[in-house]
């Protein structure tokens, strides 16, 4: 099965209200068509509100597997019955790249995603926060992400260029010392005393 960039997503940071307070967020990204410029700090037209958790050189781009969307669609549909908005479109989980054919269990720190005109290096897993819960509509979302290990991963721009939805990419293996799923579980699993 080819590995494909299903959707290329960007968003400007905007104020949202969470638990009665206003915060900036760029989580609700929308798909864009045509080529999009990719520089060292990410995609043209994309912003991050809190650079301590997303953005900068090592977390310039966030990728998420499309294979997890059916689960989130089902969970969201159940929450919708309780009054939580529409079903999810690619980018709704905050990802810049919605990918097909590459799961967290297949990705290691230092692996490279080679596209036709650019290269992105895997840097770390994404860890969910209160904004993710708010975007999805209920507080247990971060717990579900942690329980399933469906975190997606951040990428550093190794070779700048352009990206386009629908293009295929190659996974070039790095040193294979620390896996994304392994690192995510190590940081999200409660320690026993």
How many domain units? Answer: 1
Mean pLDDT, as a whole number? 90
User: What is the number of E strands?
Assistant: 13
- Fraction of residues in helices? 10-25%
The H-level CATH homologous superfamily, spelled out, is: PK beta-barrel domain-like
What is the fold's blueprint, element by element?
Blueprint: E1 3-10, E2 14-18, E3 21-25, E4 30-31, E5 36-39, E6 42-43, E7 61-65, H1 69-80, E8 97-100, E9 112-114, E10 119-125, H2 130-136, H3 141-148, E11 153-159, E12 161-163, E13 168-172, H4 180-188
Parallel strand pairs: 7-8
Antiparallel strand pairs: 1-4, 1-8, 1-13, 2-3, 5-6, 5-12, 7-11, 9-10, 9-13, 10-11
Walk me through what this model shows:
With 193 residues, the chain is an alpha+beta fold. It has a single domain (3-175), classed as M1 Pyruvate Kinase, Domain 3. Helices cover 19% and strands 31% of the residues. It has helices spanning 69-80, 130-136, 141-148, 180-188; strands at 3-10, 14-18, 21-25, 30-31, 36-39, 42-43, 61-65, 97-100, 112-114, 119-125, 153-159, 161-163, 168-172. A 7-stranded mixed beta barrel has the order 1-8-7-11-10-9-13. Strands 6-5-12 form a 3-stranded antiparallel sheet, with no helix packed on it. A two-stranded antiparallel sheet has the order 2-3. The longest helix is centred in the middle third of the chain and has 12 residues, at 69-80. The radius of gyration is 16 Å and the shape is globular. The mean pLDDT is 90.
């Amino acid at each position: 099965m080819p590995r494909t960039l299903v959707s290329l997503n960007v968003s400007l940071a905007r104020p949202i209200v969470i638990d009665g307070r206003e915060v900036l967020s760029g989580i609700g990204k929308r798909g864009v068509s045509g080529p999009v410029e990719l520089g060292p700090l990410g995609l043209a037209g994309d912003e991050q509100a809190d650079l301590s958790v997303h953005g900068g050189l090592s977390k310039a781009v966030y990728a998420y597997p499309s294979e997890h969307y059916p689960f989130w669609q089902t969970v969201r549909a159940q929450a919708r019955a309780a009054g939580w908005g529409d079903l999810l479109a690619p980018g709704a989980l905050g990802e810049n790249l919605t990918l097909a054919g590459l799961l967290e269990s297949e990705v290691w720190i230092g692996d490279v995603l080679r596209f036709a005109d650019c290269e992105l290096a895997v840097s770390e897993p994404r860890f969910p926060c209160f904004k993710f819960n708010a975007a999805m509509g209920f507080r247990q979302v971060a717990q579900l992400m942690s329980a399933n290990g469906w975190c997606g991963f951040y990428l550093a721009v190794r070779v700048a260029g352009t990206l386009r939805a629908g293009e295929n990419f190659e996974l070039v293996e790095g040193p294979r010392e620390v896996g994304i799923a392994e690192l995510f579980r190590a940081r999200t699993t409660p320690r026993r005393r």
